[in-house]
Amino acid sequence: MTGERPAPQSGELGRRRRARVAFSRLTVTIVLANLIGLVILLLGSFALTNYRDGLIEAKLEGVRAQAQIIADVLAQVAIDETSCQPVEEADVERLGEEVALCSLALNQTDVREVFNRVWDSFEGRVRIFNAPQTFENPPVSDASILLIEDIVLRQDRIEAESLPPLEDQDKRNAFTLDTVWQGFINFFSSDYHDHAALRRLEDELNEALDSSPFAEDRGAASVRIDEEGQLVVSVTVPIRRVQAIYGLVTAESGGIDELVERARLSILPFFGLAMAAAILSSLLLTAMIAQPIRQHAIAADKVREGIAAAGRARIPDFTNRKDEIGELSGSLKSMTQAIYARIDAIESFAADVSHELKNPLTSIRSAAETLQIAKTPEQQQKLLGVIQKDVARMDRLITDISNASRLDAELARESREVVDLVQLIKDITLVYDQTSKDGEASVVFSDPIQGVYVLGNAAALGQVARNLIDNARSFSPPGGEVRVRVEAPTQRLSIARLIVEDDGPGVPPDNLESIFQRFYTKRPTGTSFGNNSGLGLAISRQIIESHGGRIYAENRLENPDDLNGLRRGARFIVELPAD
Description:
The chain is α+β, with helices and mostly antiparallel strands. Among the domains are: about 10-45 and about 265-310, no CATH class; about 75-155 and about 175-255, Beta-Lactamase, CATH 3.30.450; about 410-575, Heat Shock Protein 90, CATH 3.30.565.10. It has helices at about 10-20, 25-45, 50-75, 90-95, 110-115, 145, 170, 175-195, 200-210, 255-310, 325-370, 375-405, 405-415, 420-435, 460-475, 535-545; strands spanning about 85, 100-105, 125-130, 145-155, 220-225, 230-240, 245-255, 415-420, 440-445, 455, 480-485, 495-500, 550-555, 565-575. A hairpin with a 2-residue loop joins strand 6 and strand 7. The longest helix is centred in the middle third of the chain and has 53 residues, at about 255-310.
């Protein structure tokens, strides 16, 4: 019975990341990416096609020059004009006047005498052939029949080489690194050697016999494999006097494979240096890129585990780096701080909610217990009024808490559009004017001449305006007035303002900032308590900050220069970027 492998848990994934810090997959990718180009370059250099072709061309030129010199010398001193060999009668009858009465040949003694000299300018193999004595097609089918002399010319030098002991003879034929290297090298030259192996000496001799005596490069040239399996360049030049061919000179030169292999080996040190540089650069890239990324991944795992365990983890700080890693580090740090701030806010919000709900519940429980022992109808009615008032307060709290808890999600989902701030505030104040009751503060809107437009969410901005107006009316004396106006942006400052003023007691200077905290319900003496949840201003600040603006409060003073002087009311100012 088979089953799927279970997915790794988060803790297991974190352990895996911490266990493989030095050799991550990204490190291997970086190393391979840096080495693959060098490996391709190395493999291409083993072919050395241009170098090999140039070397063969140069050797052919040298061998051709030597072969022509030898052919010219032999044409002068080694032609046997007296040894006329009879021709078969069958050949005469078959060819008629086209056949000579005697065949042409070289004097073997003179040929050997010529090669008793020292040829310091040439090192290679020289073979001398008589001209073919038959009239077959092709004329030469077996070069060994026509061979007169086979000489290996070497420069005057002595080469010493240490031979392995006799008991190591079997080991030399065994599988060694040298055989592996040679097989690897032969792989890149296999095509060239295969073509050279198809070329025979007899083909070269026949081409030389058919060549023109007036050509700039006399004779025939080829690249062949000799009897020892070595790659050689070969040139065959006819030995002529006038138009008659008395013989042929074949000059060969080897050592091509050795020279190409030396060139290959000379590349290896540079390849080693390049590989070392590539590995060092890969390690540097790993230290600069792969390791910081892995450290951030490990830190992210710790953050997740820390959140589950109510702990705190630190994100590595690479913000001093002026590159993408530094940007990633800064973004992760900001994100982590935002997550922790949100967690703290949720915890604080839950504690505040618990505290705020506990107060009316305690009051309701106390009134209910007292109601059982109340003796007069007046006492019972008073206690029932307390219970109803606290129930209404709890209802407002729950409603405002619900609105505050889903506010972030709503602000993130809702789209922004151009809002006519003047028309929005005008519509809101009109509702207050039409629904105002006797004794409540009236709402007066100062309609500006021009329109004011901002980019935002009309419903959220309307909620801010209602919260500020409700707050101002709650602090206004009976029959008071709440003044609302919108100020257009100026050429110097592209900011639109919404201002709400009241005639209430104002805000103590020390509380101008704390009134925007959640569940702030401290109220001056003489104002009603329990009619507000303490969330309206906090929600308003949250909405305005999400729109890129700010909200703050100040007092309307009798003497603007005296901050602790007589207060004539409060003023709330909302600033928003103008569209």
